[in-house]
C-alpha cells in the first residue's frame, strides 16, 4: 500500500532491537484518514474470503479493525489482555509480548467467538507471530474458522509471516519491512 509506505518512510522511526516506531500515526496518535484507507485496503485484499466478523487484540489492532467492521457493517471483537471480573464463559491463552518482553493471559468471551464464526484477524504489527498464534489457539478452543489475518506492517525478518503462511493461513500485510539494520528502514 503505497500511501502507507510513504508515511512509514516519512514518519517511522527505528529503535534498536528491530523495533519500528509509528506512534505519530498508527499506535499512539492516530491518523483516521489513513486508517480508513487501511481498512479499505484490507477489504480489497480479503475480498475472496467469506467472513462474518473481525477479531483483533487490544490495543493497537482496534483502530484498523473497527474501520474494516464499519465499512463492511460487521461486528468487531477485541481480545482482552486482562480478565474482566464480570466476564464468564471465556476462552483464554498465554501470549508473549515482543515489545514489552512479558507474557499476557489473553481472553475472549465464548459468546463472541463461536463455532458459527468465520473471522479475519487484524493487527498493527506482525513480528514473531506470538499474538497471531494466541488467536489461532482461541479460534481452536471456540471451534471458529480463521478466514485470514491482516497486518498493517509485517517485519519479514522476524519470521511470524513464514510461520503463519506455512500453516496455510491467508496472510496480508500492507507494508513489509525486510530489515531495520543500522536503523535504516528497508521496505519491500
Ligand atoms: P508478534 O506477536 O507478532 O511477535 O508481535 C506483534 C505485536 O507486538 C503487535 O501487536 C505489536 O503491538 C507489537 N510489535 C511487534 N513489533 C513491533 C514494532 O516494531 N513496533 C511496534 N510499535 N510494535 C511492535
Architecture blueprint of SSEs:
Layout: H1 2-11, E1 13-15, E2 19-21, H2 32-45, E3 53-57, H3 62-72, E4 76-79, E5 90-97, E6 102-109, E7 118-126, H4 130-142, E8 145-155, H5 160-166, E9 171-179, E10 186-187
Helix pairs in contact: 2-3
Shape: globular
Output the strand order for the largest sheet.
4-3-7-8-9-10
Number of domains: 1
Instruction: Tell me the CATH architecture.
Output: 3-Layer(aba) Sandwich
Can you give the helix content as a percent range?
25-40%
The average pLDDT score comes to 96
Largest sheet: 6 strands, mixed
User: For this entry, what is the oligomeric state of its chains?
Assistant: single chain
| Total count of strands | 10
Structural class: alpha/beta
Q: What separation lies between the terminal Cα atoms? A: 11 Å
Characterization of this structure:
This protein has 188 residues and is an alpha/beta fold. It has a single domain, classed as Rossmann fold (3-Layer(aba) Sandwich), CATH 3.40.50. Helices cover 29% and strands 33% of the residues. It has 5 helices and 10 strands; from the N terminus they run αββαβαββββαβαββ. It has helices spanning 2-11, 32-45, 62-72, 130-142, 160-166, and strands at 13-15, 19-21, 53-57, 76-79, 90-97, 102-109, 118-126, 145-155, 171-179, 186-187. The strands form 3 sheets. Strands 4-3-7-8-9-10 form a 6-stranded mixed sheet, sandwiched between helices.
Amino acid at each position: 500500500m503505497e500511501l502507507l509506505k510513504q508515511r512509514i518512510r516519512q514518519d517511522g522511526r527505528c529503535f534498536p532491537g528491530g523495533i519500528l516506531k509509528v506512534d505519530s500515526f498508527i499506535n499512539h496518535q492516530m491518523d483516521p484518514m489513513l486508517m480508513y484507507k487501511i481498512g479499505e485496503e484490507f477489504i480489497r485484499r480479503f475480498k475472496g474470503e467469506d467472513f462474518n466478523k473481525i477479531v483483533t487484540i487490544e490495543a493497537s489492532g482496534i483502530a484498523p479493525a473497527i474501520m474494516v467492521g464499519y465499512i463492511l457493517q460487521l461486528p468487531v471483537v477485541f481480545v482482552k489482555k486482562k480478565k474482566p471480573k464480570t466476564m464468564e464463559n471465556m476462552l483464554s491463552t498465554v501470549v508473549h509480548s515482543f515489545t514489552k518482553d512479558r507474557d499476557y493471559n489473553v481472553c475472549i468471551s465464548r459468546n463472541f467467538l463461536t463455532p458459527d464464526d468465520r473471522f479475519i484477524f487484524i493487527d498493527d504489527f506482525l513480528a514473531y507471530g506470538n499474538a497471531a498464534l494466541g488467536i489461532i489457539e482461541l479460534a481452536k478452543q471456540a471451534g471458529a474458522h480463521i478466514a485470514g489475518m491482516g497486518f498493517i506492517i509485517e517485519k519479514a525478518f522476524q519470521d511470524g509471516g513464514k510461520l503463519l503462511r506455512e500453516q496455510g493461513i491467508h496472510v496480508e500485510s500492507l507494508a513489509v519491512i525486510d530489515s531495520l539494520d543500522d536503523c535504516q528502514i528497508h521496505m519491500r
